[in-house]
Structures are given as C-alpha cells and as structure tokens.
C-alpha cells in the first residue's frame, strides 16, 4: 500500500483543513477514517463501528466541518454523547480540527452544569453543539436551541448511550432536526438496539465495520 492511498489528501477537504491535519501530525487516515470519510463526505447516512481509540472523533468531525458554513451563525451540527467527560473530549477534538477555519464556535451542553451559562452561550450563537441527550432535550424544551439550520447529526458512542437508557431521548432529539440532515452514528460495538435506533430516523444508512486486529 502506498502512503498516499491512506493520506487525507485523497479526500475532498478544504486546503486549510488538510494543512491543519498535517500540523496536528495526522498524516495517515486510521482504518475507520479511510472507510467512513469517503461515504460521509458524499452526504450519506452512516453507521460506523470500530473499537475505542481508532479515531472515530476525527472521522465524524471532518464530515460535519465539510457541511459547515462558518459565515452562517446558526447551529449546523450537533453531536450527542453519553457522558460529560466524552462530550468535553469531543469538543476539544472538534476545536483542534476546526482551528484552521475562521471562528467556529462550539458549545457543550451537559447535565451537572448550571443551565444559565449554557443558555447565555447559545444566545451568543453557536455553529456546533456537543452534549448529552437529556440536557439537549432540556434546552430544546425551553426554546433555547434552534435546530432549523442543522445539517449534520452525530451519535457518538451510540452503544453506551443505549446502555444508559437514552433510546427515547435520542429519538425525540433526532425528530426535532430537519429531515434533510445527514445522520452519522458511531459505536465501538453493534448491539441489537443500534439497528432499532437507526431505523427510527436514519435514511438508508451505509454500514461500515472495521474489525479489531488480532
Ligand atoms: P475513538 O473515538 O475511536 O475511541 P478517538 O477519536 O478518541 O478514538 O482517537 C484516538 C486518538 O487518536 C486521539 O488522541 C486522536 O487525536 C488520535 N488520532 C485520530 N486520528 C488520527 C490520525 N489520522 N493520525 C494520528 N492520530 C489520530
Ligand atoms: Mg470516541
């Protein structure tokens, strides 16, 4: 296999994004990135499964950034995560990968933190929200979160969100997103519930699995 075959340069990404990846030391795509990004960048719905530590965050982040217009100050992408710790990690990785674009604003919405600060951040405007399903529902019910410009919905660690009993919350949140959006589901494992969940609101998702190397 040649180096270029797994380089990010084979993808239709903005030049500043590619330059930033090089600066971050991301020279080669990981297997799940190489398998999922060409499909995700076509705008298709995707169910991607690969073990922990395989680079799933960058896979969905590069897809949602490709859909993002930073000059439009509205929430265009939302990432649902099982816990506050994971939401914080995802926010950090999105900021790293987005730093070459002009002023992409990411707001984290998780429980265990006062609503007031989150509401103020949303009022100031955000391009991307990352959070747990319960708190995102809370903001939607209060009318704090406007999703009419949303074009990418990501479910990260979907298996863990199901373990934590978030099935109904996720369905409720997904149904408040525009039907024209792209939905990307990432998971380390593929329990039965994933197919049931995706059937509720995904459009002919392509399924990609990268098996662990033994
Ligand atoms: P997962 O979500 O699959 O558990 P992460 O997205 O957290 O994995 O990625 C694991 C680590 O790999 C992170 O530290 C991330 O910065 C790094 N990483 C991701 N993609 C690449 C890449 N193409 N080249 C080098 N490092 C990468
Ligand atoms: Mg992850």
TrEMBL record:
Residues 37-208 form the Helicase ATP-binding domain. Residues 6-34 form the DEAD-box RNA helicase Q domain. A motif (Q motif) lies at residues 6-34. It comes from the Bacteria. Coiled coil: none annotated. Belongs to the DEAD box helicase family. This is ATP-independent RNA helicase DbpA. It comes from Variovorax ginsengisoli. The lineage of its organism: Bacteria, Pseudomonadati, Pseudomonadota, Betaproteobacteria, Burkholderiales.
